[in-house]
Every structure is written in C-alpha cells, then in structure tokens.
Amino acid sequence: MISVSWRLTFILLLVALAAAGGAWLGGYPGAMAAALLVLIGAVLRDSLALSRLIRWLKAPDAAPAPNGTGAWAEVFYRASRQLRLWTVRLRYEESKLQRFIEALQVSPNGVILLDENNQIDWCNATAAQHFGLDAQRDLRQHAVHLIRNPEFVAYLQAQQFHEPLQMHRAGARGQFTLSVQVFPYGDQQKLLLTQDVTQMERTEAMRRDFVANVSHEIKTPLTVLGGFIETMRDMPLDGAQRLRVLDMMQTQSDRMRHLVDDLLVLARLEGDPYPPTEQIIDMGAMMAQYKNEALALSGERHRISADARTDLGVRGNPQELHSALSNLVSNAVRYTPEGGTIRLEWDAVFEDAQPKYAEFSVTDTGIGIAAEHIPRLTERFYRVDRGRSRESGGTGLGLAIAKHVLLRHQAELLVHSTPGKGSRFVVRFPAARLATVAPLTRSEALQAA
C-alpha cells in the first residue's frame, strides 16, 4: 500500500511533467525550462537521499539513521526500524547459540565437529580433555594428525560408523577407556561423540566376577553334597560314619543358605537407598552387646574390651546397623590370632560444644591387611586370603553388606591396617545422625545386652 508521502511525491512529479509538456506544446520555453528545473531538482534530491541511505547502510551502528523529507523520511524510518528488529532477532539467536554451546561445554560427553576434510571445526572441553587437545589452537587441524591412534585412523577411513570404537587412552588420572562414534551430517561433515566408559567397563567386569563367584561358591557345596549323597547311597555306613557324613552335609547346606541369605540382603540394600524404619539407637547398650558377642565368638582366646559414651546415640535402623557393625567385630575376632587384643570404641568429636561427628571403631592386633587390598575390601566376594576366609565361615559378602548399610545411614567406613600388626576399622557418623540419649543404669545395660 502506497503511503501518503509517496503519493504526494508522485503527484508533484506528474504535475511537473504535465507543466513541462504543456509548455512545450504551447510554445512557452520559459515555462518548460522552469518545469524541467523542478524535475532536475527532484532527481538531485532523490539522488542525494539515496546516497545518504547507502552510506548509512554500510555502517548502521556508527551513526543514527539520517533525516529526510517527504517520502525519504519514511524510507529512513522504515529502514531504521527494520534494522532494529533484525538486530534484536540476531542477538536472540546468538544468545540461543551461546546457551547451546555452554550446554555442550558442560556435557560429560565429548563433542567434536569435523568438516568434509576431517578438520576440527569445533570441540568442547570434554573432548579436548579426552584427546589432549587445545580447543582454540587446534581448530582447523586434521583430526588424525592430533589423535594419533591407529584404531581411530582406521575407523575414520573405513567410514563404518554404525558401531562405536573402544579406545584405550592414558591421561593424568591413569588409563581410561573411551567410546568413540561418528555421525555424518550435512555436506560430508561429521559429529564425533566420545564417552568415558572406564567405570562402565569396571562395573561390567565386577558383574562378570560376581556371576562367576556366585557360581563357584554354590557349586563347591553342591559338589560336596552330591558326593556325600552318592556315598550314602552306594556304600554301607555304620551309625557313626553316617552321622559324620550328615554333619558335613548340614555344614555345606548351611553354607549355601547363608550365601543365599546374604545375596538377598545385598539385593534389597542395593535396591533401596533409605532404611525402612529409623529410631534412636542407644549405642551404649549396643556396645555391650557387641562385646558379649565377641567374647562368645572368641571363646576366651582374646583380650576384648569396650569403651563407649553412654549419652550419645544414632538415628537409624537397629537391625541393619547391628548387622553391619557386628560384622566388623566378628571379622576382628576371626582374623586375630589367639592371645591378641580387640578393642571396641564409641566416641564423638566436638566443635564449639556441638558434636561434629561420632566414630565406632574396632581395633585389633591381627594379621593386618596390605595397602593394595584395602580399596577393594567392600567388593562382593573379594577376599584377601580366599582359603582362610572360607575356613572362617565367611561368605565374602559381609563387608559389601556393611558398606551399603552405612551408605544408607550417611556414614563412611575408614580402614587403617599394617600387615603383621593389626587393623582399625572406623565407622564415622555425621552430626545429623547423632542424638542424645539418657544413660542406662548398669542393670539396664546388662538386660539390653
């Protein structure tokens, strides 16, 4: 739709043309010259305004839009308004792009954009860390010149990208495994994604070991039971022999039952991160119970003592915590030679008259644990000495169960040990888990134990 200003311009030009034509036909050269001058002036005015518009459009941010008269005032106004709209839209799109790039930067997966020549167009910080790249310096560099791995070069050249490539790399934190996959897009460009699958590999290895260990742990007593059943069926046994065989069969049956029970407990703990019920646990009474259990298991073969605060308890599930902490106590008895010392303690560390944390500890003078074994003690079926562990009656799941119970109570397990000198297992409870309890009388403590 033509605006009013442009209509007026067209009308003036038409009037000037009509005047010039009339003057020429009527033989009035002066009038014709005047009309031509008007036309020339209009053309010069428009040429000057157009020149100003072009100069401004070359650098619109350097100065405001020029002023104009008549129709050119509207031209300058509309051009300036459209430019402002485009600028706002461009800044919005740039903001969206920047947010997208920031999201890619914090992604745990590496992202690299390759052009049609496999040169790096862009990469995020994770990919730079995975391959030891510099996100700025290495732009426009060929990927295979920077990622010097024969498997990666062959993968890129084969262009068979339907399956990811597993690469083993060495970094500041040691050996790790990358999963690398390429996705073609656009005009022969490629999106290269990387993921650190080191933990996934370890988890899968632990799963395989778990299945193998369960199979072995169950197969051994089943083999023994099968042998005894065959013996009882094929060989005549007197009463004493029969009773001895039945006792050994009972032992193997109990071993399998304990294993299955522990597996069920572990599965339940792993499937539920929070204890089902919680209450304030009187640790003074619990310590008396742990000492009595240790004395019964020791059979007077060790010196056992207990020292506990009686005014400080723990919020938690009594059955679960008893299972976890008593496991530490029984392990100390099993792995401490006769005549050794076992000490149980429950105490707190205070800060500004408030408990900072509390610790349950079991210290023994047993065989000790080498440093390389300590990080793996809570793995399922992990045993420092497999033969000795089986002789002691353990299933290899006790510390794994204890770890999950303690995690459910926001507690941590600390292990200090020296081979040949003994070990100290410490369970540290945060202040949020602590509660004040009334001290028990001696009769109440004995009754609780």
Listing every helix as H and every strand as E from the N terminus to the C terminus, the arrangement reads HHHEEHHHEEEHHEHEEHEEHHEEEH
CATH homologous superfamily descriptor of the largest domain? Histidine kinase-like ATPase, C-terminal domain
List low-pLDDT spans. Answer: 1-6, 440-449
Q: Which geometry do the CA atoms define?
A: elongated
How many distinct folded domains? Answer: 4
What oligomeric arrangement do these chains adopt? single chain
In terms of DSSP E residues, the strand content is 15-25%
| H/I helix tally | 13
CATH class of the largest domain: Alpha Beta
Q: How much helicity do the residues have?
A: 40-55%
CATH architecture of the largest domain: 2-Layer Sandwich
Rg measurement, Å: 42 Å
Cα-to-Cα separation, first versus last residue: 98 Å
Strand order of the largest sheet: 2-1-5-4-3
- Structural class by sheet pairing and helices: alpha+beta
Number of strands: 13
